[in-house]
Amino acid sequence: MLIKSRRGWEIPERDVTPEAVFLSRRALLGAGAGLIGASALPGSAFAQATAGAADPSAGLYPVARNPRYTLDRPLTPETAASSVNNYYEFGTNYDVAKAAAKLKRRPWVVTIDGLVEKPMQVGIDDLLKAMPLEERVYRHRCVEAWSMAVPWSGFPMKALVDYARPLGSAKFVRMETFLDKEVAPGQSGRFYPWPYVEGLTLAEANNELAFLVTGIYGKPAPNQFGAPLRLATPWKYGFKSIKAIVKFTFVEQKPKTFWETVQSAEYGFWANVNPQVPHARWSQATEKDIATGERRPTLLYNGYGEFVADLYSAPAFKSEKLWM
Description:
It is a single chain. The protein is of the alpha+beta class. The protein has helices at residues 19-29, 33-38, 45-49, 78-81, 97-100, 124-130, 157-164, 202-206, 258-263, 305-308, and strands at residues 109-114, 120-123, 134-141, 146-156, 172-177, 197-201, 211-216, 219-220, 230-232, 245-251, 286-289, 295-297. It has one domain: Oxidoreductase, molybdopterin-binding domain (Sulfite Oxidase, Chain A, domain 2, Alpha-Beta Complex), CATH 3.90.420.10. A hairpin with a 2-residue loop joins strand 7 (211-216) and strand 8. The longest helix is centred in the first third of the chain and has 11 residues, at 19-29. 40% of the residues are buried. Mean pLDDT is 87; it is low at 1-53.
C-alpha cells in the first residue's frame, strides 16, 4: 500500500479556494470593494493589467496546473496582485501598471551566451514553443514584508539551462533585463545601475522550484509582472525574481547583482527568506497578506525548505548570511 504523507504547509488541491469564489466572498464582506470597483474602470490599473489579449502567445493559455505545488492559503485575487508590484524602471510606488504597459513585448529577443556550447539569440515565441509550459501556484514573499499567492504559468528554469547547454566551467547564471529609457522613465536616473542584473548558482537554477514565468492567472503575464519573461524563485525574497529578462549569461564567477551594487549592506546575492534575520530597517518575523491584511509568521525559505535546504547545507555556507 502506498501511503503519502502530506507536507506540513500543503493543503489538498480540492481545498484551494478558486479565485472567483474568493473575489465574491470579499465583495460580500465589503473588504475588497475598492479593488473590485477599480476593475470596472476602463482606465484603471486593473484594466491595464489585464489588457493582454493581443499577445501572440495568448492561445497557449491556460496551461495545465502541476499538482506537486500547493498552497497553505487562498490564491490572491488578481485585482490585488496586479496593484502591488515593485518595478523601479517604471516608478518607485506599487501602482506601476499604467506606466509598464508602454513596454513593447514584441519583438522580444532573448540572448543566451557566456560559457555555453553555442551562444544564441531566440525570439520569445520560439522559446515558448521549445519549453514545457505548466502552471504552478507559489507563495511570493517581498523583502518589504508583504506576501501574496499566485498561479504562475511558465516553465522550469532547468529546461532553459538544458536548452543552453552550458560548459562544465559554468557555475552561475547571470540574468539581465531590458534597457529602454524612452519607455522606462526610471532608467533615466543616475542613482541606479541599469539595466537590472540578477544571478543564481547553477545548482539553484537547476532546482525544481526555479521557474521562468510567462503567464499568470491563466493568460499571458501583464507587463507589471515582468512580461514577457521573468523569474520566480519562491524560497527567495521577491527582488531576486528579475523581470523582463533579455539575457542569460553563464559564468564562472558570482555576478554582482543590482541591489548588491546599490546597497550591499541591506541586499545581497542569496536573498533567502529567513524570519530570524531582520532587514536593516525592519523585522522579517512576520508578513502581511496584500489581499486580506492578515499577518502571519514568516517561514524559513518561505516554507519551501524541503526543496531547497540542501542547496545551503555545505560547510562553506555556515559563515554566510544566506538571507542576503
